[in-house]
Design a protein that fits this description.
Blueprint lengths: L5 H14 L12 H14 L1 E5 L10 E2 L2 E2 L7 H4 L4 H9 L8 H10 L4 E7 L26 H12 L2 E7 L13 H16 L7 E7 L8 H14 L4 E2 L41 E4 L17 H13 L3 E6 L9 H17 L17 E6 L2 E6 L7 E4 L5 E7 L2 E5 L2 E4 L2 E5 L10 E8 L1
Parallel strand pairs: 1-4, 1-9, 4-5, 5-6, 6-7, 8-9
Antiparallel strand pairs: 2-3, 10-11, 11-17, 12-16, 13-14, 13-17, 15-16
Helix pairs in contact: 5-6, 5-10
The structure holds ligand FHN.
Ligand FHN binds next to loops.
């Protein structure tokens, strides 16, 4: 053993260790503390903008002169448009009025704290400069601009969080259906998602999957993808549609064995929220996600503002959709409504951001949200007797006031189990007026 070299043996062992399968980290086992830290900005944000934008904004709900029933971004399917025909919309996609700074400004003025945009919807068209496929906004359109890149730069400037929607289902790639699915997954979908997380698109905060219901996609694949993505970007937040988490339940993760960080009720607000899990209701402003020229069924300011309050009172986030036109504009009807929401939030945002679900049952006259030391009563219907009763039994109340008039105290007295607050004669806001009850913790 004259030539015994411990150094050589260590190298040999290291080489052997490399041949063994690496112990993969299961990010779903994360501690509550780590999870709370990662989810903090998202929970505080409460309000985000969903953007459905793609080449479906060119037909905008009309094909061969006929108005096609259903949501705009599904036109390829609903009108049975063959792939080669549908591809032609790319050649007509030239949204010269697109201005990422303007979009981010609209979201910011509305009080939204994050944006989720479709990077690739079910039609398979990529809205960024993807090297995986030429079927993308830079190579296949006269526009030739990287939409996601421009938006990421604009978001970074404004401190707006950005996330990408990605459809697992893909009507364009022939391998995405049937026995070649693994080829699509490994050589197309995953490389594309890696591009999105490469750093070129800034600090991507959320990946928002969809189209997971296809039979080729399983919960196991979803969990593997979830772990792979968190390996790449540990602070990433991923919705439950990365796996089969929305099937039969809106919750996921922790205990239930489903991948994903938050539930995604669509076009609805769960009547009691989803206690114990993070969740986000996504909703359209009219009846379509992708732009349709003839959909004028807009929700009113009142419905939208009250939806935001209702969701916050149940501990959820509101992801409100806009469907920009093929010129690159967010429809005026959406911009007006977002501005109205922003005006309400400018006064009452304190009762939305960083709040938790109501500590009390839902009252007839409105909703509650809460924060340490504060209860916010969002009054929809101003009572005729101008008395607000809050079941604040074991609270030591210090002060009560309206968010619209913070310096003026409102009278209150404890009456048995109820705190009775004397309201002014007129509601300061006909949609929702917020009364703050400050108490000693
Ligand atoms: O089919 C899609 C639809 O087009 C839209 O993108 C919504 C948004 O949540 N998700 C799907 C259906 O669940």
């Amino acid at each position: 053993m004259k030539n015994f070299k411990p150094f050589g043996i260590i190298i040999l062992l290291l080489l052997l260790a490399n041949l063994l399968p690496a112990q993969e980290k299961n990010w779903m086992d994360e501690s509550k503390q780590d999870r709370d830290k990662r989810m903090e900005w998202w929970r505080d944000a409460r309000f985000g903008m969903f953007i459905h934008w793609g080449i479906y904004s060119v037909p905008a709900g009309v094909y061969k002169g006929k108005e096609i029933k259903g949501i705009g971004e599904w036109i390829m399917d609903h009108a049975n448009i063959p792939v080669e025909e549908y591809e032609k919309f790319a050649k007509e996609f030239n949204p010269v009025k697109f201005n990422a700074d303007e979009w981010v400004q609209i979201a910011s003025d509305a009080g939204m704290k994050y944006i989720i945009i479709t990077s690739k919807h079910h039609d398979g068209f990529s809205m960024w400069d993807s090297k995986v496929s030429p079927y993308n906004v830079v190579e296949a359109t006269p526009f030739k601009r990287d939409v996601l890149k421009e938006l990421s730069v604009a978001c970074e400037k404004k401190g707006m969080r950005l996330g990408f929607y990605y459809s697992i289902m893909d009507w364009h790639n022939p391998d995405a259906k049937g026995e070649n699915f693994a080829k699509y997954r490994d050589n197309y979908m995953i490389p594309q998602i890696k591009e999105l997380l490469s750093g070129r698109y800034g600090n991507v905060s959320v990946l928002w999957f969809d189209g997971e219901w296809i039979k080729e996609w399983t919960e196991e694949q979803g969990q593997a993808l979830y772990n792979m993505l968190r390996d790449i970007k540990p602070d990433l937040i991923i919705n439950n549609r990365v796996g089969k988490g929305r099937k039969g339940m809106e919750g996921m993760n922790k205990g239930e064995g489903y991948a994903g960080d938050f539930g995604t009720p669509e076009q609805k607000i769960p009547s009691k929220g989803l206690p114990g899990v993070d969740w986000e209701s996504c909703m359209t402003m009219n009846d379509t996600w992708g732009y349709k020229t003839y959909d004028h069924d807009w929700k009113s300011d009142k419905v939208l503002i009250r939806n935001l309050i209702d969701i916050a009172s149940k501990g959820g986030n509101f992801l409100l959709n806009v469907g920009p036109t093929s010129e690159g504009l967010i429809p005026a009807a959406s911009v007006e409504r977002l501005a109205a929401m922003g005006n309400w939030i400018k006064i009452n945002g304190e009762a939305i951001y960083s709040t938790s679900a109501s500590p009390f049952d839902k009252p007839d006259w409105g909703r509650y949200t809460t924060k340490p030391g504060k209860i916010y009563a969002h009054i929809f219907d101003w009572s005729e007797d101008k008395i607000l009763k809050v079941p604040a039994k074991n609270y030591k109340t210090n002060r009560v006031y309206l968010l619209s008039d913070k310096n003026k105290d409102l009278k209150f007295e404890q009456d048995g189990d109820n705190l009775q607050i004397t309201l002014p004669n007129e509601a300061p806001d006909s949609i929702a007026s917020v009364v703050v009850i400050e108490y000693e913790e």
